[in-house]
Amino acid sequence: MSLRIWHQSFTVLSDLGAYSDALDAHFRAIARPGTEIVMHGMAPGTYRTNYPGDDIKYASLQYLHGLQFLSAGVRAQEEGFDAYAISTLPEPALRETRALLDIPVVGYGESAMLRACQLGRRFGVLVFIDELAELVADNAVRHGLGGRFAGARHVGFQFGDVLEAFSEPSRLIATFQESARRLIAQGAEVIIPGEAPLNVLLARNGVREVDGVPVVDSLAAWVKDAETLVDLRRAGAHGTCRRGYFSGKPDTTRVQEILAFYGLDKLHAK
User: Fold this and answer.
1) Relative orientation angle of helices 252-261 and 59-78, to the nearest 10 degrees
2) What's the distance, Cα to Cα, between the start and end of the chain in Å?
3) Cα–Cα dist 239/218, whole Å
4) Along the 270 residues of the chain, how does pLDDT read in single tens digits?
């Protein structure tokens, strides 16, 4: 049976032709027949450049950008998508979006961490932005996996370096492997390549382990989680919790009123 997943990037995909094409190809390779992953990015003009990192290293600005993720999720459900994927390591507004929607909502970091826990006792994460290491540690605790988290560290290159390396990746792969070895020395038995562009670069070049330590394909993890959750929902399984402050679902009409008041209803409108 077919299903449609709304993929939501933290980048403006229209600004990133080579990466966008590579991401689409990877999705087509890992999704099962009948799964359609429809790629969406942030609204054009969201950032000053094609790189969001200058903003998302600040909790305050990431919170503001997270409103796009929330409004996109509402749009995904309205348009009949079967699942919604927050496909970025920081997972902005994941908890809040999950509370608003009836369709399954998956997070890139959460899926990667859960998969890592099935492959080894402790996992480590490599990131482009030093400040994100603190957020990753906090997210691991929020997902209930703080005791399995070995640490996060800078991978040794930047977002822009990855975009340039799709044609010649050998130098960056070598740097990634050296950074992974430092995490392994800290006790990591599984490596999560933090941001999605690095994930795509490694996957398309067959980098699946470093010195016997698995490297998680985080994108594949959330795709398979989304497919499974849709299958379970169609089979009659329960959805998410609907009690309490963090999980209670507000009135849909009021949600639409508030989105319209802040102008968020127009960001992802067709």
Assistant:
1) 130
2) 26
3) 23
4) 799 999 999 999 988 878 899 999 999 999 999 999 999 999 999 999 888 888 989 999 999 999 999 999 999 999 999 999 999 999 999 999 999 999 999 999 999 999 999 999 999 999 999 999 999 999 999 999 999 999 999 999 988 899 888 889 999 999 999 999 999 999 999 999 988 999 999 999 999 999 999 999 999 999 999 999 999 999 999 889 999 999 999 999 999 999 999 999 888 665
Q: In the CATH scheme, what architecture does the domain 3-229 have?
A: 3-Layer(aba) Sandwich (3.40)
pTM of the model: 0.95
Question: What is the domain partition of the chain in residue ranges?
Answer: 3-229
Q: Which residues contact 2 (CB under 8 A, 6 or more apart)?
A: 34, 35, 36
> Which two structure tokens, joined as six digits, stand for 203?
């996957």
Query: 3-class SS at 215?
Result: strand
